[in-house]
Design goal:
globular, five-stranded antiparallel beta sheet
């Protein structure tokens, strides 16, 4: 979906396909047919943007077989789909029964991460629509915080500098300008937007910026205006923003609130949980750990890294951090000029919701994704952007 900003530039809105577990090229082609095109039709649109997730095997197959890459582009065009952004965070296994800490491997100190992201960039340069010259890729925020020492930090920074040089060369070769955005996430070396300032300033290349995920922003209790103003002041490019909402519990000390939270404690994904105390931010690596005894202070609200569907906040006594998303979006694209032109709805947790909230059929998932995109579209038009055909 495309929107015209009042300054005349185009803002792209997509939904991220990491909600679908396909990890092979055949699986990717099937998800375009079974999910992405039906979402487009459900919205009544001739064209729909998707934030494509390509696991290692699918990306490698595309970059080593030009005919397969041409075939994917043809299939996208045939189904009324377009790609301007990729999700390069998960490497593989994102559809496994248990993902948890595995999603942070390999990290940016490992050569496999540089090789995979280079493959993604080469693929994206060929998938961009003919009238689009700028693409974006979101990626792991360096590493999970443990086992990350100065030696690994140096290796990670060197890898990102090498990637920036490769993107420069790709731009000269194809005329396509691609940028990478580190995506701050609770528990990682770069947990907040503030944490991103030091490594991004040290790397000092305009092809390496930040991806602002509004669920992660909210989970870490960051104020959207303060965070985004600091990025602008430091001249850190906001490569893209993922529109998502976290789980919010206003009164976590109450037994009924803890019972409601326990329904979201599931075995597949890590749900880092945070609370803001007078002494600063406190947290646990997972929701179950927070619910166990007194692992986390409960005198103040809790927020958990659980991507809640944008249009469907949990039932009381829980809610979502949709207000944080609204505030961030107003700052990102509501001003005289957009701070980013790539927006992506990223709710990958539909099948991790409590059983009674999960879609029971493919059509229900299509309806849910379409409803999220409709809400995002309405937020954009309320900010003065005009939806384009």
């Amino acid at each position: 979906m495309r929107f015209r900003h009042p300054d005349g530039s185009t803002v792209h809105l997509a939904y991220c396909t990491n909600v679908h577990p396909a990890e092979t090229l055949d699986g990717v082609l099937a998800q375009l047919r079974d999910h992405c095109e039906p979402v487009r039709r459900r919205l009544g649109r001739d064209r729909l943007g998707i934030g494509l997730w390509l696991a290692r095997d699918a990306a490698h197959a595309l970059v080593t077989d030009p005919s397969a890459l041409r075939g994917l582009r043809t299939e996208l065009e045939h189904r009324g789909l377009e790609v301007v952004t990729l999700n390069g965070f998960p490497y593989e296994g994102f559809g496994a029964e248990e993902v948890k800490y595995r999603v942070y491997q390999p990290d940016w100190a490992d050569p496999e991460r540089l090789a995979h992201t280079t493959d993604l960039a080469r693929v994206l340069a060929q998938l961009l629509p003919d009238d689009v010259t700028e693409g974006s890729i979101s990626t792991l925020p360096l590493a999970w915080r443990t086992a990350y020492d100065q030696e690994r930090a140096t290796a990670a920074h060197t890898a990102l500098t090498t990637l920036a040089e490769r993107l420069d060369a790709l731009n000269e070769l194809t005329g396509r300008s691609l940028r990478i955005g580190l995506e701050p996430e609770p528990g990682c070396t770069v947990e907040t937007t503030r944490d991103a300032l030091v490594p991004l300033t040290a790397i000092g290349h305009d092809r390496i910026g930040i991806c602002v995920d509004t669920c992660h922003l909210a989970t870490s209790f960051e104020d959207p205006h303060t965070a985004l103003d600091a990025l602008a002041q430091a001249r850190v490019p906001i490569v893209k923003s993922q529109l998502s909402a976290a789980l919010h519990a206003e009164h976590p000390h109450l037994p009924e609130v803890r019972a409601a939270l326990a329904a979201f404690d599931e075995p597949r994904f890590l749900h880092q949980t945070r609370t803001l105390t007078a002494a600063g931010l406190r947290g646990t690596d997972d929701l179950g750990e927070a619910l166990a005894g007194d692992a986390l202070p409960d005198a103040s609200p809790w927020r958990a890294h659980f991507h809640v569907p944008l249009h469907a906040a949990p039932a009381a006594p829980l809610t979502s951090t949709l207000p944080v998303l609204r505030a961030a979006l107003a700052r990102l694209v509501g001003g005289p000029h957009p701070l980013t032109h790539h927006l992506e709805v990223e709710t990958y947790t539909w099948q991790a919701l409590p059983p009674e909230l999960r879609p029971r059929a493919r059509a229900q998932l299509v309806d849910g994704i379409a409803a999220e995109l409709t809400l995002a579209r309405d937020l954009l038009t309320d900010l003065g952007l005009k939806e384009l055909p």
